[in-house]
Write a structure and sequence with these properties.
It contains 31 helices and 15 strands. By secondary structure, it is of the alpha+beta class. The strands form 3 sheets. An 8-stranded antiparallel beta sheet has the order 8-9-11-10-14-15-13-12, with helices on both faces. It has a 4-stranded mixed beta sheet with strand order 3-2-1-4, sandwiched between helices. α8 packs parallel to α11 and α27 packs parallel to α29.
């Protein structure tokens, strides 16, 4: 390479780009080969440049060494270079460093660098965990091999000697990282590098192996590493920049590059790899803690020397806690336990582990996998009771199910689990794979057991409510059949089996009805009562399950507005079952009526803002005219108000549109500002479309890229004499404004609207009717005919894109 000293590294950049985007007719490198080529390219450039800068092969007292991805020879596209210029006190080392670093900086190549003697590097590692871990992977690039070799040997020796004092710091830093980045195994959009079960954790396994606390990682972990690296390589090659989080919209392209069918196959493979790494590291941390002596004072040390072995504390029949609770204690079998003769022992071990928040020992899991008997149908009462106890342990359930599933024991209890294991969801609201979502929902249900009369059925229903997913049929229908199968196998009474199946069949009934239909319509309430068969126990179970399911879906899916709507719907159903009259639709309150009468007199629009605990009611009153709904929705969107529901009424000859809203962030806007903007919007003096487009660009970078195709569904007879149009689309700033404008442009009357925001997706429901004389679908009832529906649907879909 010419001009190797000074200037820029443009030749390196060009060569790298040719590897990432080969010319037509040139072979596209596989991900592993690409990493090798990138590593060789950068090493060749660095060696040539360092030599020209004054780094001599032998005896020069200075060496260039690589750490990080380059040190591991795992350089993926757009990785930073982690370099150490190590020396033995050479005076001109800073000049050499400048000649090395500046060309890389000038060409925009990411660089993490240091210039240190061996002693300085070791002292830095003593105080900084990241530096210490990096030096474990240090690899000579060019220069004096004696200097770089001394650094590598001394860093590893210091790591082994100091591990007893650093294990707590190592585990705590890992836990903080996991809390920030989540898990690779069960996240819909995993962080391949920092997530629990990702590439950083593989580095920790290597570090524990270097400390001689665990064996070197085996073939299964090598396969997991290979897959994680391949996915990260293709993700960055496709994105054209540094990326570590695999988003759903990138999944199909990455999967295709790796020869997989689609993003769902890729997600399952990634989840399996993540679980392998996660489980191996959890076991490794426990093994390391058990292998290292605890730091104690002299008195404590003297006492510990008199002990015959680790403490064993009974937890349940045949189950003990082995070791000190704060020193990696594990749940194990008692010495007199007989797994082959005790059908409920497996579940007692699991329950004890979940309650005590201690892991099950690896040897105990292996023994149970080999010796625990298959539970006969129906299960003995003791086993069924232990299952319910396990499911009610709350957050402790999650790690226990993971351990049982890794060893095949969970699948032995629930063979149906295989369909949902590592199964990615098909909607953007879910952040977990289906199997983890079910466990999370059960853990959430554990905090709601006092709200229902049958807590056992609530826990079972939470565990099974999505068990029918992964098949080419309605998952609620398939799941109900599977729930019947499970209920009969574990020995539930016939009536309880029917209730469990009904919970699974109707687990979406309350949230969908409350957030997408008019619960003030008696017909809606009677349909819910009919669906639950007039069963009050089932009704309360479905209410609690709706909360647990929503909380386990993702952030923002459960909120006070949704909870209040479902509670209102359940109260109305109770009234019907008790033979009491349903409450009539809420009339306008005194303030709203007075405002309407004032607007009728002045003919000027006005706004009333009423704040409650977590939401607010915005009453928009204006002379009735086409376009009022869309313009009011546009003004609310400009002020960052998320609309949950809209009811369109009239009083004193003016329109009264009542919106339930909450601020997306910050506090509510001033009513005076809303009033002024609404007046301008109604008069056509406010360019709402342009302002909303600008707001979307400023806050979200413009319309979402690679958004899923919006869908429209039609539901007849959902309300008296009208039709419900349901739009499912990616959420956008001003979406309700655009869709309402499209409906108004079609000459449709909107009676009410509801908006359910689920992560980045919305489900908007509109109760529609056609003006008199245009109701071709059902004359006299206001229903649109097929031609009108087609025109309306095209307009709504165009507005949603």
């Amino acid at each position: 390479m010419k001009d190797v000293v000074g200037g820029a590294a443009d030749d390196l950049v060009r060569a790298r780009e040719r590897l990432l985007a080969p010319a037509p007719g040139q072979r596209r490198l596989a991900p592993g080969a690409l990493r090798e080529a990138l590593t060789d390219l950068h090493e060749f450039w660095l060696a040539a440049h360092a030599t020209a800068a004054g780094v001599r092969p032998e005896g020069g007292g200075v060496a260039l060494a690589a750490v990080g991805a380059l040190g591991r020879r795992e350089l993926v596209p757009y990785s930073d270079l982690d370099l150490v210029l190590v020396h033995d006190g050479r005076q001109d080392v800073e000049s050499i460093a400048e000649k090395l670093w500046y060309p890389l900086w000038n060409s925009g190549i990411g660089l993490d660098h240091s210039v240190r003697t061996v002693g300085e590097a070791l002292r830095a590692a003593e105080s900084d965990m990241r530096t210490a871990l990096g030096l474990l992977e240090v690899r000579h690039v060019v220069g004096d091999t004696d200097v770089s070799g001394r650094l590598a040997d001394a860093a590893r020796q210091a790591w082994r000697v100091g591990m007893r004092n650093r294990l707590d710091e190592l585990t705590e830093s890992a836990r903080r990282r996991w809390a920030r980045s989540g898990e690779v195994a069960h996240r819909v959009e995993p962080d391949l590098k920092h997530g629990h079960g990702g590439l950083r954790d593989l580095q920790l396994l290597n570090a524990l192996s270097i400390a001689q606390l665990i064996d070197r990682p085996g073939a299964e972990l090598a396969e997991a590493r290979h897959l994680l690296l391949d996915v990260r390589t293709e993700l960055r090659r496709i994105a054209g920049r540094a990326r570590d989080v695999l988003h759903a919209q990138d999944g199909d392209e990455v999967a295709g590059a790796l020869g997989m069918a689609d993003r769902f196959e890729l997600a399952r493979a990634l989840s399996s790899a993540g679980r392998t790494v996660m489980y191996a590291l959890d076991v490794a941390f426990r093994a390391a803690r058990a292998a290292l002596p605890a730091r104690r004072g002299l008195v404590e040390f003297g006492r510990s020397a008199l002990r015959r072995g680790p403490a064993r504390r009974p937890l349940d029949e045949g189950v003990v806690l082995h070791g000190e609770p704060d020193r990696g204690a594990e749940v194990t079998l008692a010495r007199d336990a007989q797994p082959s003769r005790d059908p409920a022992l497996l579940l007692r071990v699991a329950t004890a582990a979940a309650r005590s928040r201690h892991p099950i020992a690896t040897g105990t899991l292996a023994t149970l996998a080999d010796s625990a008997p298959e539970l006969r149908r129906p299960w003995p009462a003791a086993a069924r009771e232990e299952l319910i106890a396990l499911l009610g342990t709350g957050s402790g359930l999650v790690d226990v199910v993971e351990a049982l599933d890794r060893t095949g024991l969970w699948g032995r209890l629930f063979p149906e689990w295989g369909w949902v294991r590592d199964l990615p969801p098909r909607d953007a609201a879910h952040i977990w794979t289906v199997d983890r979502h079910l466990v999370q929902a059960t853990a959430r249900a554990g905090r709601l057991v006092t709200t229902v009369s049958r807590p056992d059925l609530l826990l079972l229903g939470a565990l099974l409510h999505d068990i029918g997913k992964g098949r080419d049929a309605d998952h609620s229908v398939v799941g109900a059949a599977l729930a019947t199968q499970v209920g009969e196998r574990i020995g539930l009474a016939e009536r309880d089996v029917a209730t469990l199946a009904a919970m699974v069949r109707h687990h979406l009934l309350l949230p969908h009805t409350a957030t997408r239909r008019d619960i003030g319509d008696p017909a809606t309430v009677h349909r819910v009562v009919q669906a639950v068969g007039g069963d009050l126990v089932l009704l309360e179970l479905l209410q609690a399950l709706a909360e647990a399911d929503s909380l386990a879906t993702g952030p923002g899916v459960w909120n006070d507005w949704k909870a209040a709507l479902i509670a209102d719907l359940v109260d109305r159903c109770r009234s019907v079952l008790a033979g009491e009259p349903l409450p009539k639709p809420e009339p306008l309150d005194d303030d709203q009526r007075k405002l309407a009468e004032a607007v009728a007199a002045s003919r000027r629009p006005d706004v009333l803002l009423t704040e409650t605990d977590h939401t607010a009611t915005v009453t928009v009153v204006a002379p009735d005219r086409p376009g009022l709904l869309s313009r009011a929705a546009g003004v609310l969107a400009l002020n960052s108000l998320e609309v949950h529901a809209a009811v369109l009424r009239s009083h004193a000859g003016v329109a009264v549109d009542v919106f339930s809203v909450s601020p997306r962030f910050g506090s509510l806007p001033d009513a005076t500002l809303l009033r002024e903007q609404l007046a301008r919007a109604v008069d056509g003096r406010m360019p709402l479309t342009d302002l909303l487009a600008a707001k979307e660009r400023d806050y979200g970078g413009g319309p979402p890229a690679d958004a899923p195709t919006p869908r429209v569904l039609w539901f007849d007879d959902e309300a008296t004499g009208a039709t419900v149009l349901e739009l499912r689309a990616t959420d956008r700033i001003g979406l309700l404004h655009r869709v309402a404008a499209a409906l108004e442009g079609c000459g449709v009357n909107v009676r009410w609207a509801k908006v359910a925001t689920l992560g980045g997706t919305v489900v908007d429901s509109f109760c529609l009717s056609m003006p008199p004389g245009q109701d071709g679908g059902a004359p006299g009832r206001g229903m649109p005919d097929p031609v009108q529906r087609g025109r309306i649907e095209r307009a709504v879909l165009a507005a949603a894109r």
